[in-house]
Write a structure and sequence with these properties.
It is a single chain. Helices cover 39% and strands 16% of the residues. The protein is an alpha/beta fold. It has one domain: TIM Barrel (Alpha-Beta Barrel), CATH 3.20.20.140. It has an eight-stranded parallel sheet with strand order 1-2-3-4-5-6-7-8. The site of zinc ion has 5 residues, from loops.
Length: 258
């Protein structure tokens, strides 16, 4: 059976009950879908760790930009983060969800940048891919990544990629980072994003599929709760747009489970 990967979702989100997650993972196991569950804070990560016992689950540890200012209050926040990674090195496959969001939370810019930059540093130190959230901060994210990439190649996934700015797309292509496409690509109004997807493919870019579930539900389920197994809808949509199923070049993860 063809393997599928949901490169970014949130099994630990409060919208899912543990029973629901069990059901989700049963379906994913039957359908050969590997689920990459991201964390937005320490509490999420604890929940994800439990789910990582399941053969189809890979786990990410990160501090979401909305959460950055909260952990930043602890004067030992860096040690706290590093200690978590050291303790769970066998389980952690991604550093995510991390990033910058200047759209909703402009007043926490400083804390967001410090926390994100620290994760970029750790991604090199521990050889872990970054799963990056960026909103109204694409340029700033690329600048930070480029600074570190000069020393050592980074594996950076731009989760839920929606930027239609050609300059940003080109920077990601040049650096061989990854484009994560999710539910938005199925929306009727996404004509510009579809053109970007084609451009990325035609220029040999790295394309990954994800759901960001329980958020950003694809058509025809838009408006309802999202699930990791809906990633098959994203795959089908991208296959249709690109007229090929040969778009996933590599999986940026070390994975002993596969
Ligand atoms: Zn997310």
């Amino acid at each position: 059976m063809i393997p599928y990967f949901d490169l970014h979702c949130h099994l630990a989100d409060e919208q899912y009950t543990p029973e629901e997650v069990k059901n989700i993972l049963d379906i994913c196991q039957k359908e050969n879908i590997t689920v990459c569950s991201m964390s937005t804070n320490f509490e999420d990560f604890e929940i994800n760790l439990k789910y990582s016992e399941h053969p189809n689950v890979l786990v990410g540890f990160g501090i979401h930009p909305y959460e950055a200012h909260k952990i930043h209050k602890n004067p030992k926040w860096q040690e706290q983060i590093q200690k978590t990674i050291e303790e769970h090195q066998q389980k952690i496959k991604f550093l995510g969800e991390v990033g910058l969001d200047f759209y909703k939370t402009k007043d926490t810019l400083y804390q967001q940048i410090e926390v994100f930059e620290y994760f970029v540093y750790l991604s090199q130190k521990y050889n872990l891919p970054l799963s990056i959230h960026t909103r109204s901060a694409e340029k700033e994210v690329c600048d930070i990544l480029a600074k570190y990439q000069k020393q050592k190649k980074l594996t950076a996934i731009f989760h839920c990629f929606t930027s239609t700015e050609k300059d940003i797309v080109k920077i990601i292509l040049e650096n061989e980072w990854y484009f994560g496409f999710g539910g938005i690509i199925t929306f009727k109004k996404s004509t510009e994003l579809i053109e970007i997807l084609k451009y990325v493919y035609n220029n040999g870019g790295n394309i990954l599929c994800e759901t960001d579930s329980p958020y950003i539900t694809p058509e025809p389920y838009r408006g309802k709760k999202n699930y990791p197994y809906f990633v098959k809808i994203i795959y089908q949509k991208i296959e249709k747009i690109l007229n090929t199923s040969n778009f996933i070049r590599t999986l940026p993860v070390r994975n002993e489970k596969l």
